[in-house]
């Protein structure tokens, strides 16, 4: 690892006693009390083995994958393991009707078969610096983005790495994270979706699960070992660190920890913000997305080609829909808004007890209450707009015409001619976009989307074009939607091609009914209306001040705190154990291959077992991967690790820092985790690494991949 002598953050900071298990702790702030708690739980390694600003540690083998998922280095040749659902879009992009890697799986038998993934990046955390004092000096004289850019450029020059300045607790603390970025990443292996996502959306967020949710990539470098874009002459990365894999498995009560890059949480949200999620925005997301999913699912079931075309879209939309629905139910079930209101009552007393605090936050709660109440109708309308009209791929095709006006000006003409160089790239991009577009499906969704928008959004938020067309069609939204779709050149690839292969004035193009609808009322107009309603109150500033006040209050009360997830590397720790989801119900802590047979249904796409895998299962040749105590092939297991989106693919490590699994899901009882952690119900669903290794060896016949790994038995 490149050594740079700069001011580094000490590993141990003096904070306060901790509640066990809860928390996504910044990996560079493993303070003494936290370490003691981890040791009491069973951790056997020293904390400086986890992270150190000046030397190679376990964290040196953990990467962010474009800050959307987490991966781990597991060989001296740059082999990386993560979740299959993190690789889903890449596998989908490589798939064709003739070679469907989603359905059939993919295994590169040698390096020449590994598939370079365009625009795929991995980031290794190399340095972290505390910039709090520096930022507090600068932020009153520089805007946030300008200040960040200035500091990031300075530290990039000092370190040679890509640097990102990150705020914690809404500006109470600031840190600079410096990353080494690699951009030649190649797909190596992935099981078919029938193994990786067995149970599909039915089992998503459920327990027990039986998913082989993993995929393999390899990182490549220039011949001298430096990061480089894809080149056939590049060589596999020789990493600073790799994870050792343990084939011993886990037991109930075992200590586990995970390192990863959780994307975002909002655990410092006010009771007003929580009410908005529970009663205003998330119910809209759930209603609209379910209607959209029903349409996609119907069309996917009618044609394998459409299934492949929309598989990635369906996967992403279904995940969000189930997550938001679960969050609402969790907030209601655990009455968390009431809990937060009780804490806020104590905060109010604390604020009033100090002249300085009263000066800072004396009107905070009144401002919050007013801001959220006066904008509630607008907030619901804006969410309906996002979930209906903005989510229409048909209207998205029309929105992409917006950039043509500037192209026309640059070309010194008022006409779009796609045979000219200035406009040919637009035509090519659009034709490519239509590869993921089915006119019948998109028309059906657009009709429903416009219907639901008009039914749920007050007319004053429609804009002139929609209002006039609505009146023209005498409130018949279905006829109106049909008219807009059928008369738009963006309705299909064929109509787009026919129209744009001849020159047309830009004003004529923008008079297309889909363009007119897009321009009728946009996000900017919603934002302007919000500013009008709020008057002198700055809603974003008020939310920021709430977080700072809550942080200061808890700090003074000696309440342990960790910042909200923000894509920086975090550590969470816990214990392997069962789930008690509700009264008189208990779930075991692990699942086994027997569960595949228990759920098997050849007529259900989500619970099918393909012939090749069925033969492998029936042989019951578990080899060295079966559990020594139960004699079974364990598939997934539970622990109380505190995870969220972005932790997908996070390495789950045992007490000695060895890889025993990959985090890939939570349980439905934990779906309120964006807002709060429930000490007994929050569970992390983990792929037992032995199941992945068994699949690689026995199903994929890819022993050569296992030979790269450092596996202990």
What brief labels describe this structure?
2 domains; 713 residues; 11-stranded antiparallel sheet; alpha+beta; Thrombin, subunit H; 8-stranded antiparallel sheet; 28 helices
Topology:
Elements: E1 25-26, H1 32-41, E2 62-65, E3 69-73, E4 79-82, H2 84-94, H3 101-104, E5 106-107, E6 115-116, E7 122-130, H4 132-138, H5 144-159, E8 162-168, E9 173-182, E10 184-190, H6 193-196, H7 200-203, E11 215-221, E12 235-236, E13 245-246, E14 255-260, H8 271-302, H9 304-333, H10 336-352, H11 355-361, H12 364-374, H13 376-387, H14 393-399, H15 404-411, E15 415-416, H16 421-433, H17 439-456, H18 464-472, H19 477-486, H20 493-500, E16 504-505, H21 506-509, H22 513-520, H23 523-534, H24 539-556, E17 570-575, E18 590-592, H25 594-599, H26 611-619, E19 634-639, E20 651-653, E21 659-666, E22 684-688, H27 689-699, H28 703-706, E23 711-712
Parallel strand pairs: 13-23
Antiparallel strand pairs: 1-17, 2-3, 2-7, 3-4, 4-11, 5-10, 6-10, 7-9, 8-9, 10-11, 11-12, 14-17, 14-20, 15-16, 18-19, 19-22, 20-21, 21-22
């Amino acid at each position: 690892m490149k050594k740079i002598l700069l001011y580094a953050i000490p590993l141990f900071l003096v904070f306060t006693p901790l509640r066990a298990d809860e928390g996504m702790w910044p990996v560079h702030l493993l303070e003494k009390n936290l370490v003691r708690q981890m040791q009491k739980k069973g951790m056997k390694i020293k904390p400086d083995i986890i992270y150190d600003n000046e030397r190679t540690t376990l964290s040196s083998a953990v990467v962010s994958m474009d800050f959307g998922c987490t991966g781990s280095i597991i060989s001296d040749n740059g082999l990386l393991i993560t979740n299959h659902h993190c690789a889903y879009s890449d596998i989908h992009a490589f798939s064709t009707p003739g070679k469907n890697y989603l359905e059939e799986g993919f295994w590169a038998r040698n390096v020449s078969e590994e598939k370079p993934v365009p625009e795929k990046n991995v980031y290794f955390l190399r340095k972290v610096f505390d910039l709090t004092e520096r930022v507090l000096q600068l932020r009153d004289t520089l805007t946030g983005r300008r200040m960040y850019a200035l500091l990031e450029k300075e530290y990039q020059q000092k370190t040679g790495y890509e640097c990102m300045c990150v705020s914690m607790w809404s500006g109470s603390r600031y840190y600079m994270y410096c990353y080494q970025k690699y951009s030649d990443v190649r797909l190596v292996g992935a099981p078919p979706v029938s193994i990786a996502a067995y149970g599909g959306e039915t089992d998503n967020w459920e327990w027990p699960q039986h998913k082989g949710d993993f995929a393999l990539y390899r990182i490549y470098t220039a011949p001298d070992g430096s990061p480089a874009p894809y080149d056939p002459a590049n060589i596999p990365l020789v990493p600073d660190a790799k994870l050792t894999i343990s084939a011993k498995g886990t037991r109930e009560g075992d200590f586990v920890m995970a390192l990863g890059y959780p994307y975002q949480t909002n655990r410092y949200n006010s009771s007003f913000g929580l009410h908005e999620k529970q009663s205003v925005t998330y119910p809209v997301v759930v209603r609209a997305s379910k209607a959209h999913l029903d349409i996609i699912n119907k069309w996917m079931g009618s044609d394998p080609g459409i299934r492949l075309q929309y598989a990635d879209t369906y996967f992403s939309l279904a995940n969000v829909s189930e997550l938001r629905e679960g969050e609402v139910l969790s907030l209601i079930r655990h009455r968390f808004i009431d809990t937060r209101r009780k804490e806020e009552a104590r905060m109010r007393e604390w604020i009033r007890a100090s002249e300085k605090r009263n000066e800072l936050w004396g009107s905070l709660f009144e401002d919050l209450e007013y801001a959220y109440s006066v904008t509630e109708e607008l907030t619901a309308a804006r969410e309906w707009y996002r979930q209906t009209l903005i989510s229409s791929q048909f209207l998205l095709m029309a929105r992409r015409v917006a950039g043509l006006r500037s192209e026309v000006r640059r070309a010194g003409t008022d006409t779009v001619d796609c045979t000219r160089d200035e406009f040919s790239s637009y035509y090519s991009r659009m034709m490519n976009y239509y590869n993921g577009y089915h006119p019948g499906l998109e028309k059906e969704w657009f009709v429903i989307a416009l219907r639901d928008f008009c039914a749920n959004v007050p007319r004053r938020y429609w804009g002139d074009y929609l209002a006039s067309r609505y009146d023209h069609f005498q409130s018949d939204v279905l006829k109106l939607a049909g008219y807009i779709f059928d008369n738009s050149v963006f309705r299909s690839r064929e109509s787009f091609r026919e129209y744009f292969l001849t020159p047309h004035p830009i004003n004529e193009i923008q008079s297309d009914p889909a363009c007119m609808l897009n321009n009728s009322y946009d996000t900017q107009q919603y934002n302007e209306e919000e500013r009008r309603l709020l008057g002198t109150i700055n809603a974003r500033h008020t939310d920021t001040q709430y977080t700072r006040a809550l942080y200061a209050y808890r700090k003074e009360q000696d309440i342990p705190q960790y910042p909200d997830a923000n894509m920086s590397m975090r550590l969470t720790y816990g214990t392997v154990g069962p789930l008690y989801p509700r009264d008189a119900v208990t779930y075991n802590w692990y699942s086994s291959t027997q569960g595949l047979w228990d759920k098997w249904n050849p007529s259900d796409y989500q619970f099918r077992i393909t012939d090749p895998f069925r033969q492998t299962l029936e042989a019951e040749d578990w080899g060295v991967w079966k559990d020594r105590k139960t004699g079974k092939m364990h598939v997934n297991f539970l622990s109380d690790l505190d995870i969220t989106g972005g932790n997908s693919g996070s390495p789950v490590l045992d007490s000695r820092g060895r890889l025993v699994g990959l985090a890939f899901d939570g349980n439905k009882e934990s779906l309120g985790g964006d807002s709060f952690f429930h000490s007994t119900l929050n569970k992390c669903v983990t792929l037992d690494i032995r199941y992945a290794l068994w699949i690689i060896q026995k199903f994929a016949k890819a022993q050569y991949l296992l030979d790269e790994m450092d596996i202990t038995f």
